[in-house]
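Pasting as-is:
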Amino acid sequence: MALLVVSGCRLDLVTTAEIERDGSGNLALSVRLDDALLTELDDLAIDPTLEVTALASELEGWELERTVDEEAAITITLTRPFADASEMGPALRQLSSGLADADPALLIDLDLDVADDGSASLEGAVAFRSPMTTGAEVDGEVLGPSSDDLAELTAEVVRPRLEVAMPGPVEQHDADQVDGRTLSWDVPVGETRGVAATSGTPMLYDQPWLWGVVAGAIVLILLVLLALRRRR
C-alpha cells in the first residue's frame, strides 16, 4: 500500500442513486483505477477486475460493465434498478454482505421515503472501512503495517463518494456539494458520517415524459406546416 501512495496512485469509488418521483430508480457503484495504480497492480500480478467480477456474479440484480477512458484508466461499474423506495436500502447493503470484519468495504445504510406527490426524505449513514491487515501471514504472524497505518495509507489512495439525485428540488441536506437535484457526500476512510436530505414535489418540467410530449408536439407542428407549404 505504501508503494501505491509513493507512486501517486488513485482509486475513485463512487456510489450513485438516481431517484424518480414514484420511488423507483437506479443504483451504480463505479470503481475507477488510474493508470499509475493499474501499472503497480500489474507489476504485482494482481488483476483488479477479478474480485469485482466475482462480487457481481454473487449479487442478485446487479450488472457489470467495464470501460477504459482516454487516460488509460479502467472503470468497473455495477448497476441495478430498484422498483420502489423500500428496495433501495437493501440493494445498497448487498454490496457489503458476506464480507468479513477485516475486509475493506463501502458500508451504506440508507432509508428512503417517497410520498405520493414525489417529495422525498433520505436518512442514514455511510462509511468506508479500510483493511485491517494486509492478508499476509507467516507462521501465524500477520505481516505488514498495523491497522491504523493501513487506514492512513488507504485514505491517501482511495476516494469514496456518495451521490444521490433526489426526485425534486432539494430543501434540506448535509451534503458536501449540491448540483441541482444531485447531492454529493465525501466518505471518510475509517469513519462513519450521517446522510440526510429532503426534497420537495418535483416540478412538472423536470419530468422526462413531458419533454417527450413537447418534442412530439413540435415535430407534429413542423409536419403540418411542411404539408401546408407543399399545397401552396
